[in-house]
Amino acid sequence: MQYEILTAITLLSRRSNQDKVRNSTAPRL
Q1: Cα(1)–Cα(28) distance, rounded to whole angstroms?
Q2: 10 and 21 Cβ atoms separated by less than 8 Å
Q3: What is the pLDDT of residue 28?
Q4: What pLDDT shows up at residue 21?
Q5: Out of the domains of life, which is the source (predicted)?
Q6: Would you say 3 and 10 are in contact if contact means Cβ atoms under 8 Å apart?
Q7: How far apart are the C-alpha atoms of 1 and 26, rounded to whole Å?
Q8: Gap between the Cα atoms of 29 and 27, Å rounded
Q9: What pLDDT shows up at residue 20?
Q10: Distances 23 to 7, 11, 20, 28 between C-alpha atoms, Å
Q11: In angstroms, rounded to a whole number, what is the distance separating the alpha carbons of residues 25 and 6?
């Protein structure tokens, strides 16, 4: 379930805020 949520957030954030995602999910990805 966590993977699905992470994917959705990553896709949405990546599409909207690439900069924010890079700083937020940089070490995760």
Answers
A1: 17
A2: yes
A3: 56
A4: 54
A5: Eukaryota
A6: no
A7: 21
A8: 6
A9: 60
A10: 16, 15, 5, 10
A11: 10
Reading the block at residue 10, the tokens are: 């990553």
Site of tokens 């959705």: 8
Residue 13 and residue 24: Cα distance in Å, rounded?
Answer: 10
Q: In this predicted structure, what is the pLDDT of residue 23?
A: 61
Phi first, then psi: what are they for 13, rounded to 5°? Answer: -65, -45
CB 10, CB 29: distance < 8 Å: yes
pLDDT per residue over 1-29, tens digit each?
688 888 888 887 767 665 665 666 556 55
